[in-house]
Amino acid sequence: MSKFLTDDDMRGEKMNKYVKIRRELHKYPECGWHEYRTSARIAEILENMGHEILMGADVVNESSIGKPEKLSLEDIKKEEERALAQGANREYLDRLNGLPGVMVIVDTKIPGPITGMRFDIDSLPYQEPSKEGYRPFDEGYISVNKSAVHACGHDGHTAMGIGIAEKLLDIKDNLKGKIKLFFQPAEETFYGAQSIVDKGHLDDCDHFIALHLALSAENVSLRSNTIACGCKDFLSDRQLDVNFYGKAAHPCGASQEGKNALLAACSAALNLHCIAAHEKGLSRVNVGEIHAGVAANTIAPNAMLRIEYRGQTPDISKYVEERVFQVLDGSAKAYDVTYDYVDYGEVSAGKSDDKMMEIIQRAAQKVPWFRKIYFEGNVGGSDDAAVMMTKVQSNGGIGSYVGIGTDTTNTLHNPEFDFDENAIGAAIQLCINALQEIHGK
Ligand SMILES: [Zn+2]
Ligand SMILES: [Zn+2]
């Protein structure tokens, strides 16, 4: 038994061991592909429980990680040193060998269904506020890492996954088939889910479940004691960094010689936001950043736009993409500049299956904490769990992306996001109930 999982660690009625783990993860948040301490701790806790685990390159396919996200060897060293200083065990860091990600396979050795469950482990790049009256500060689990905070509840998801792993050891003898628990890096950035799919870990799964805290249903946030059994409104998400290349010139003396990349970028930004909506569903385009120019007295020879676009179905995503590139081509032509772009890849759209949502619904009915059960909820955006779910569905399997209600201090992706930790225990029980239905002998 791990020293991190003894009952002595429990402080007060609500402070059970999974809450304690969540708070520890909250204190040491790490953004996409930097989750060295987090992965090492998850692995240590799971192995001490008695699970066999896979780590690093056995979990994620390294070549699926796009260039912009890859850490240099120097950065990996630096991040490993930080993780060590923050309590990571060197043995587990060594086994990660530079790649975050952990996986457990619970194999009953009896033929049966294969379920994959995704728990995302990364944080967001904001600064958590140190102020009295904010529980993480008052109770000593505020982020100690600069510009990193668990503002999307992934610390809670990870604690749920660890709790499910532990409970599975108790009930394994009554189950058939296999259960795979993925502790996935880089949900908020890129290539996290894709790198696990590319490793082939979802190829044999016929069931898939992912959870997310604090989604919504019927246009209201999911509060404590509520649950949404699945979501069908994932949007695809694609992000590009677009670089325009022009020609510097004196803006007075030889302006006809200049090629203004800044104006091309501005024209593109305005027109990207003018792309018409699609009648068949949701689409979104956003220009989030623009950087251009060198000096007030020089025609700007360079500009960079950071853009993202989303669509509710593959057809709508394709429509938006075509329009995005027409705008980029047109803007470049109008100002006689050229452009290229860095593509961060696409997170697919997705849809939970009614059949899987019904399993979740039955499981929720047996958890007293859930007093209001919505059959369908809303993602309100994108999550790369859709990449895994779509993979399972493409092989004839079923999946669901479940919303676990919880009272929060602020909205998801706000640096002051904290939540009602009672949701952790409820979610563990929910998933155990669902796995018992799927895998019961
Ligand atoms: Zn998020
Ligand atoms: Zn999230």
Structural class: alpha/beta
The biggest beta sheet reads: 8 strands, mixed
How many beta-strand runs? 14
Can you tell me the overall shape?
globular
Report on this structure.
- This protein has 441 residues and is an alpha/beta fold.
- Helices cover 33% and strands 20% of the residues.
- It has helices at residues 17-27, 36-49, 73-85, 90-96, 135-138, 154-171, 192-198, 261-272, 314-334, 354-365, 385-394, 422-439, and strands spanning 53-55, 102-107, 114-120, 178-184, 207-213, 216-217, 220-221, 226-228, 237-245, 283-292, 302-311, 338-347, 372-374, 398-404.
- The strands form three sheets. The chain has an eight-stranded mixed β-sheet with strand order 1-2-4-3-5-14-8-13, sandwiched between helices. Strands 10-11-9-12 form a four-stranded antiparallel β-sheet, with helices on one face.
- The radius of gyration is 23 Å and the shape is globular.
- Mean pLDDT is 94; it is low at 1-14.
- Bound molecules: zinc ion (2 copies).
- One zinc ion binds at residues 120, 152, 154, 187, 212.
- The site of one zinc ion has 4 residues, from loops.
Question: How are the elements arranged and paired?
Answer:
Layout lengths: L16 H11 L8 H14 L3 E3 L17 H13 L4 H7 L5 E6 L6 E7 L14 H4 L15 H18 L6 E7 L7 H7 L8 E7 L2 E2 L2 E2 L4 E3 L8 E9 L15 H12 L10 E10 L9 E10 L2 H21 L3 E10 L6 H12 L6 E3 L10 H10 L3 E7 L17 H18 L2
Helix pairs in contact: 1-6, 2-4, 2-6, 6-12, 7-11, 8-9, 10-12
The protein binds zinc ion (2 copies).
